[in-house]
Design brief:
Length: 160
């Protein structure tokens, strides 16, 4: 059950994403992992008339945006997700560890919460990220070691 505060936080998150992206965009796919003592937030977005996605952490270089400005906006986004997780706790709802958010420029969005104990995962954050990117964007990592891992992961999944 979403609370009024959750609705406000969803709006705040959407506005935060829009503020970080310094160009027109059509769709954003975001991953947030919020734990008690750490957090990770990144996303990919596609500009209009583009098949490809731009990785959020490449915004400063790609768009000549100050790294400090980008980092500040990203930290605000982290804070919003931490507040959202706290709101779940305060309302005695199952507390998620990570989520995938899809946002379209027209304001439509969806969120898929995941409750996996990522600290007990057999995969590193780099491996989890590679799996997530492959599953949501269909792309492979550039780093050869992670690419090899992903190929083995996909192979093992197809065998089961």
């Amino acid at each position: 059950m979403d609370t009024e505060k959750m609705g406000e936080l969803y709006q705040q998150i959407a506005e935060g994403i829009n503020e970080i992206i310094p160009s027109a965009w059509e769709k954003v796919i975001l991953y947030a992992e919020i734990l008690d003592d750490s957090s990770e937030v990144f996303f990919y977005f596609n500009p209009p008339q583009s098949e490809g996605y731009i990785y959020s952490h490449n915004i400063p270089e790609h768009f000549h945006v100050s790294e400090d400005v980008y980092d500040e906006l990203l930290l605000q986004l982290h804070d919003s997700f931490e507040e959202l997780r706290d709101e779940f706790k305060e309302n005695n709802q199952d507390v998620w560890t990570n989520l995938t958010l899809q946002l379209k420029m027209n304001g439509k969005f969806s969120i898929k919460y995941d409750y996996e104990d990522v600290l007990q995962s057999q995969y590193t954050i780099s491996q989890r990220k590679a799996i997530w990117v492959y599953e949501h964007l269909g792309t492979y990592p550039k780093r050869e070691s992670v690419k090899t891992f992903l190929e083995q992961y996909i192979q093992s999944k197809s065998e089961h």
